[in-house]
Known about the structure:
Largest sheet: 5 strands, mixed
CATH topology of the largest domain: FAD/NAD(P)-binding domain
Number of helices: 14
Shape: globular
Structural class: alpha/beta
CATH architecture of the largest domain: 3-Layer(bba) Sandwich
Number of strands: 22
Bound molecules: 3-acetylpyridine adenine dinucleotide
Strand order of the largest sheet: 1-7-6-5-19
Radius of gyration: 23 Å
CATH class of the largest domain: Alpha Beta
Helix content: 25-40%
CATH superfamily of the largest domain: FAD/NAD(P)-binding domain
Amino acid sequence: MSKQYDYVIIGAGFAGMCMAIKLKQAGFHNFVILERNKQLGGTWYDNHYPGAACDVQSHLYSFSFEPNANWSRMFGPQQEILQYMEHCATKYELRQHFQFNTTVTSATFNDTTNTWTVTDAQGNNYTAKAVIGCSGGLSQPAMPDIKGMDTFEGKTFHSAQWDNSYDLKGKRIAIIGTGASAIQIVPAIAEEVKDLLLFQRTPPWIMPKPDRKMRSWEMKLFKALPFTQSLFRGYLYWVHEAMAAGFVTNPAILRLAQGISKRHLKKAVKDEALRAKLTPTYTMGCKRILLSNNYYPALTRSNVQVLNNGIAEINTIGVKTIDGTQHDVDAIIYATGFHAADGVMAFDIKGKNGLDIHQAWQQGAEAYLGTTVAGFPNLFLIVGPNTGLGHSSMILMIEAQVQYIMEGIKAMRTNKWKTVEVKPEVQQQYNETIHRELAKTVWQSGGCVSWYQNKNGKNVTLYPGYTFTFMRRTKRFEADKYHTVA
Length: 486
Ligand code: N01
C-alpha cells in the first residue's frame, strides 16, 4: 500500500499531537500521524507502571494553549495525563489523522522528487513533502548486559513494558535500577509484594516532592478566572527556570539543594547503614534530580532490601551478587532506563544522496536547534539532539520547536520552496556554541555517568540553558540559515 500526504508525523505523544494541532490551526490538513502503539500518548502510554506520575507540576507540564483546571494533584498521575491527551485529541479534531499499530522502520529522501518516503513494518509506504519525527527521546527501553540474563526462568519485564497481567501479590521481586522510574515503582508495590530486592548501582539525589491534592476552591477559581491559572503557571515556570541557573551557571545553588536532600534522607531513614548506602557520591544535578516523599520510607520496610554489592550474574532462579550471595526471586523488573544518547532514532533515516543519519551522527547526534539536520532536507525533529531539560517541563521545548517548524512550513508555502535544508556551517556553529556552554555545566563536571552522554562522553541530549533562551532562538525561521530549492 502506498499513500500520499503533505506531512508525515511520526509519534502520537505530546510532540506529535502539538505538531498536528498547530498544522491544523494554520490550515494544513493533509497529514497523518503514524504511531506504533494502539492508542495515543507516547511515553505516557508506554510507562503505565504502578506509581507512574509526572515529576513536573501538571499545570506546567501541559500545553500552554490548553490549560486544565481539573488536575486532581499538583503532579498528575499517568492515567490523568493520558486523559488530558485524549481530551486534546478530541477538542483539536486529531482523531482522523491517527494511524495506530504502525511502526515506522525507515524514512528515505528522494533527490529527484524532493519528497520523503516513510515505510512501516508491514511494508506500507507513505510519501510526503516533509517528515516530522516525534518519536521521543526516551522511547527505546534499554536492557542491561548482565551475564546469564537470558537463563532466568521467572518473569521479567522492563519498567516501560509493564505486564499488568502479572500478579505481584505474595511474590519475591527484584528491581534493577534506582532512577526516576524505580523510585516511583518501589513505594507503589512494596506493600503488595512478599519481598522486594532493590539492586542499586548508583544512589540518586532525591528531593521532597511538593505534591498534594488540588483543593476544590483552587479548581473552581482556575475555571472561573482562567487568568489565575495562567499566573500559577507563570509562577511555576519561573521557579523552574531559577533551577536552571544551578545546572548551567551556578552549582552553589545545587550544593544548597544537596543539604535539603540529605536532611530529607535523614528524616526518613534512621538506620545509619542504610542511610550510608543511599547517600549519593556525585554532585547533585549530574544525573536527573528525583522527587519523592515515599521512596525512602518504602526502603525502611522489613520486606524491602537495598543491595548495592553489584550484580555478578543472573541465573535460572535469581540474581547472584559479587559477594557470592544468591538471591532467589520470582520476577526481575528492569528499571534500567532508555537508549537516549546512543540510539537517538528508532528507525533508519536516509537523506540527500542516500546519507544515513547514523553515519552523519557517528561522532554524536547533532542538529540545528535540535530540529533540522544538514543533509536532510524537509526533515524536522522534535525533542531532537540537545533539547532535553534537567529542570523543567519538556512541553515548553516541544512548543518552541513546533513554533519554529510551523514558521518554516509557512515560509515554504509563501515562497513556494520545495525544500529547506539547514546549512552545515550554521549547524556546526550552533553546536560549537552549545557544547562550549555544556562544558561548564554540572552534567559534565558532576562526577557521574548518565544517560545524557553518549559512549564518547558527549552530551547529546540536554539543552544548556534557560527555556526562554531556546524560545527566543526558535521564534523565527531564519531563511538565510537554510539552502532552499524553489
Ligand atoms: O532510567 P534511568 P529511568 N546494572 O536511566 C540502573 C524520565 N522519567 O527509566 O545510575 C545495574 O534514570 C542505573 O544505574 P546507574 C526521566 O527523564 C520521567 O528511571 O547508571 N543497574 C539507574 O539506576 C528519567 O531521567 C518520569 O548506575 C543498572 C537505572 O538503572 C528518564 O525517564 C518517570 C544497569 C536507570 O535509571 C529515565 O528514567 C520516569 C546495570 N547493568 C522516568 N543498567 C517522570 O516522572 C542500568 N542500571 C516524568
